[in-house]
Write a structure and sequence with these properties.
- This protein is α/β, with parallel strands linked by helices.
- The chain folds into four domains: about 40 residues; about 55 residues; about 60 residues, no CATH class; about 170 residues, Ribonuclease H-like superfamily/Ribonuclease H (Nucleotidyltransferase, domain 5).
- It is about 40% helix and about 10% strand.
- It has a five-stranded mixed sheet. It has a two-stranded antiparallel sheet with strand order 6-7.
- Helix 10 crosses helix 11.
Length: about 400
């Protein structure tokens, strides 16, 4: 078997790798572009946690190579530092520091000094979290409470509107987590992020879903009333299933108007189990707060007509391969993976435990609610839900 030679990526190739990564292309595909394994691409991307390092450039006020060559020539002519400064239109202190840090008047060389200045520019700069202990402790504490970096950034901005020193962007938090060379936030905090990856993925990365089924007599989402579409009236829900090991499943329900979340324990994925569980849950809600349900094309709701007959709830189905049409539920399912990780047995959770998880999620600040939690912003028609559901 012919062994491929080691490849040292050029600056142009590295730039192409980052372009493709930011466009959402997987490492395996990028590797094929260069006839390499994905591990070769990972070695380029992982040191900065999947976050593209900024392109380096010299500051406009920095000395140029031509200016350094002038300094070198005038030093050979035994001219004073002040005269060199006047010749270049620089301050004497600038010329003095330049010469002293690069060997002095007798050893100064233009090319070496210019390269040394470029190399010194690589020294790590302290980020905001490294400089502010209070901010660092606050961010670490909220991450341990399963808050996302974006929620933390939004909450800090809302809580300290006139104190810029106590605000930090979600991008800074992500960089402090994924670029461990910064040494600001502990690596263990990565475990509290919604996605348990070690490098940051592009927002354009593929999120395809498989296993969409054919539903008989399905009512398309296009026939959903306008009042449901614009979220103006409470009582319209989005639903889906999340799966775990051992064929264990939980039904998730999100109210479109308030984003209120409910979790329903189901015995299995078959339509009999799912529909029966949804009917039981619906009986705990007044009819005016359970008017419609939007679901994807999963076969677990093939018996949707039984649900409608038992509850008078209209059931609408998303178009095939269109998960964004149930966006509130899709986003909620990603949030829930912090509490219900993939690969765990979901059947071990009681309904009381699921209610507790839903309550934790409902207490988190939401970007769509201007970083208020549901407990502070939920409409009057849904304020009674916590008491109705209780601990199940």
């Amino acid at each position: 078997m012919k062994q491929r030679r080691r490849i040292n990526y050029s600056a142009t190739q590295r730039s192409e790798i980052w372009d493709r990564w930011q466009a959402g292309e997987p490492m395996s595909s990028i590797g094929r572009r260069f006839d390499r394994e994905s591990s070769s691409v990972f070695s380029v991307i992982s040191p900065t946690g999947g976050i593209r390092p900024p392109d380096r450039h010299r500051a406009e006020q920095a000395l140029t190579l031509s200016e350094r060559e002038e300094i070198s020539r005038w030093l050979c002519m035994r001219r004073s530092l002040r005269s060199i400064a006047r010749h270049l239109g620089r301050t004497p202190s600038t010329i003095s520091r330049e010469v002293q840090r690069n060997g002095g008047s007798d050893c100064y060389r233009a090319a070496g000094s210019d390269q040394a200045a470029w190399d010194r520019g690589r020294r790590p700069k302290l980020c905001k979290l490294a400089c502010c202990a209070f901010l660092r402790r606050t961010v670490s504490s909220l991450l341990r409470r399963q808050w996302s970096p974006q929620q933390i950034g939004g909450w800090l901005k809302r809580t300290y509107p006139r104190e810029l020193q106590n605000q930090v962007s979600h991008e800074t938090i992500y960089r402090s987590l994924f670029i461990q060379a910064r040494g600001v936030l502990k690596k263990e905090l990565l475990e509290h992020l919604r996605a348990r990856r070690t490098v940051r993925r592009s927002r354009h990365a593929s999120m395809k879903r498989n296993g969409l089924g054919q539903i008989k007599n399905a009512v398309s989402i296009s026939e959903r009333p306008p009042s449901v579409e614009d979220r103006a009236v409470p009582g319209h829900w989005e639903g889906d299933l999340i799966g775990g090991s051992g064929n264990s499943y939980i039904a998730t329900l999100v109210e479109r108007h308030s984003r209120y979340v409910m979790l329903v324990k189901v015995a299995n994925k078959d339509t009999e189990s799912v529909v029966s569980a949804l009917i039981k849950q619906s009986r705990r809600l007044p009819g005016e707060l359970y008017r419609s349900l939007t679901w994807d094309r999963g076969k677990e709701l093939a018996d949707h007509q039984r649900l409608t007959l038992a509850t008078e709830v209209g059931v609408y189905f998303c178009d095939p391969r269109s998960p964004w049409q149930g966006g509130s539920n899709e986003n909620t399912n990603r949030l829930l993976r912090q509490y219900l990780p993939r690969g765990t047995d979901l059947s071990l959770h009681s309904q009381a435990r699921l209610n507790a998880i839903a309550r934790l999620l409902n207490e988190r600040p939401r970007k769509t609610l201007i970083y208020q939690s549901l407990t502070h912003n939920v409409c009057e028609q849904l304020q009674w839900l916590g008491n109705v559901l209780g601990d199940g």
